[in-house]
Design goal:
Blueprint (H helix, E strand, L loop, with lengths): L1 H26 L6 H28 L5 H13 L5 H75 L1
Main location: membrane
InterPro entries: TB2_DP1_HVA22
Pfam families: TB2_DP1_HVA22 (PF03134)
């Protein structure tokens, strides 16, 4: 348990905080170096894909011995100055894969946006209808309560 905690802490520090600071330092140079910016963009793209993949595959992989340590090793490999793994993995694997499927991905994103817009519109219409029904019910109950109060006060209340 303690080893897992330390591994997760190191992964956060070495996989996110240190690279984020390196990216910041590169951006804040008086004349940012395009090659360094490209490297950090490649790193963050890979980390985003790995994080997305991990969210689906975590239940199948997390039980493996030294899973956390392997993940830590991968993120250090990706940014370490001696390996520059992000450049290698991005250029040799991810970029060709995305380029080969770019049209399909773009088409899927357009369809997803359209479905999301349709779903949002239908959910909004349902919420408005529910709101109207609730408001109508509240108005009916208030009206009923006011009529009961006027009836229970009797004719003396009406004279005044």
């Amino acid at each position: 348990m303690a080893v897992s905690f330390v591994t997760r802490l190191l992964t956060l520090a070495l996989g996110y905080a240190y690279p984020a600071y390196g990216c910041y330092k590169t951006l804040e140079l008086n004349a940012p170096q395009m090659e360094r910016l490209r490297f950090w963009c490649q790193y963050w793209i890979l980390v985003a894909f790995l994080t997305a993949f991990e969210s689906f595959a975590d239940c199948a992989l997390s039980w493996l011995p030294m899973y956390g340590e392997a993940k830590l090793a991968v993120v250090v490999y990706l940014w370490h100055p001696k390996t520059m793994g992000a450049r290698h993995v991005y250029d040799d694997y991810l970029r060709p894969f995305l380029a080969a499927h770019e049209a399909d991905i773009d088409r899927g994103l357009v369809e997803l946006r359209a479905r999301a817009a349709d779903a949002t519109a239908s959910h909004l219409q349902a919420a408005v209808a529910l709101g109207r029904a609730c408001l109508s019910e509240v108005a009916r109950r208030v009206s009923s309560q006011l009529q009961q109060a006027a009836t229970s006060a009797g004719p003396a209340a009406q004279v005044r």
